[in-house]
Design a protein that fits this description.
The chain is α/β, with parallel strands linked by helices. Helices cover 36% and strands 14% of the residues. The chain binds N-carbamoyl-L-aspartate. The site of N-carbamoyl-L-aspartate (NCD) has 11 residues, from helix 2 and helix 7.
Length: 324
């Protein structure tokens, strides 16, 4: 049976909910998932086997390429004793290749599983899936829309490293227009007090004005900048992103805009500081030089990525009602 067509707020109860947008969360929902994640992390580090998802199967339905999101969801389910139906690029290997609609594909996989994680190029696709599915749908990226589970692991990393989610000065560099991780992260930061985000991008890749207006009304201070010289030297976080090549209509436009802003040792030394952290959702394609990877402030190849596993373990256990 289909669910309520509006997006359900979490409201203190994760069981059976779809995860489509960060707009479903309050700060107390975020506090809860961060604390559950912390517990899973401690268990996993002690290598305690868990069988919370034993007997349940989760479908991973990914219409777009993925390494970290797919891999960490797959690992999270299996570390909790559950099974997976891994379906990567159904348009190549599934009935989508024969012309099947998204709706019919969802009907099929909900028959075989207790939850469906979906990544799809169309904005709103996860919501379409949620409207027809009777099992929870987790949005692993809907085009240039949102990527809520990435924002959850990002804020977990920030809280873990800096000890707070308010009073932050953040610089986001790269593609604000097409970057779904940024869209979700700003929504999460907007839930906390006194956060300022500098949005460093070429004009063409700016966050649309309507988004800036809508999010500013929530209390977050958003400052678009186009020049590295305007990076504040007291930032707590630099969050760099890839220019999203696959969203461009022609390659020439992409070539003109890619890697306008590259984090080099020189940029970090000139505008950074010793207390900040450097994040990136990955993959990177040149926008952070590899000589920074060993820097103590660089989170992307270590803590940030690994936290994706624990956040997804926590989320699945909560949504499937195995813990509360
Ligand atoms: C991101 C995505 O798919 O939006 N990747 C990820 O899930 N970590 C970022 C990107 O592809 O640039």
């Amino acid at each position: 049976m289909a669910k309520n067509p509006s997006i359900d707020k979490i409201n203190g109860n994760f069981k059976g909910k779809d995860i489509l947008s960060i707009d479903q969360f309050t700060t107390s929902d975020l506090t809860h998932i961060l604390s559950v994640t912390h517990k899973f992390k401690s268990y996993a580090i002690k290598h305690k086997p868990l069988d919370l998802l034993k007997g349940s199967v989760t479908t991973l339905l990914f219409y777009e390429p993925s390494s970290r999101t797919f891999g960490s969801f797959c690992s999270a389910v299996q570390r909790l004793g559950g099974g997976v139906v891994p379906m990567q690029m159904p348009q190549l290997v599934g009935s989508v290749a024969k012309g099947e609609t998204l709706e019919d594909t969802i009907q099929a996989f909900q028959s075989f599983s207790e939850a469906i994680v979906i990544r799809h190029p169309q904005v709103g696709s996860a919501k379409i899936a949620a409207d027809i599915a009777s099992v929870p749908i987790l949005n692993a990226g809907d085009g240039k829309g949102e990527h809520p589970t990435q924002a959850l692991l990002d804020i977990y990393t920030i809280k873990d490293q800096l000890g707070r989610l308010d009073n932050l000065t953040v610089v986001i560099g790269g593609d604000m227009y097409n970057g779904r991780t940024v869209h979700s992260l700003i929504r999460a930061l907007a839930l906390y007090k006194n956060n300022t985000v500098y949005l460093l991008s070429p004009k063409q890749l700016r966050l649309p004005n309507e988004e800036i207006d809508m999010l500013s009304k929530r209390g977050i201070n958003l400052i678009p900048i186009e020049d590295e010289k305007d990076i504040p030297k007291n930032a707590d976080i630099w969050y760099w992103t890839r220019v999203q090549k696959e969203r461009f209509e022609n390659e020439k436009d992409y070539e003109k805009l890619k890697n306008k802003f590259i984090v080099t040792k020189n940029l970090l030394n000139t505008y950074g500081n010793k207390n900040m952290i450097l994040m990136h959702p990955l993959p990177r394609v040149g926008e952070i030089t590899t000589d920074i990877d060993g820097d103590f402030r660089a989170m992307y190849l270590r803590a940030q990525m690994k936290n994706g596993l624990y956040i997804r373990m926590a989320l699945l256990a909560l949504i499937l009602g195995k813990i509360s």
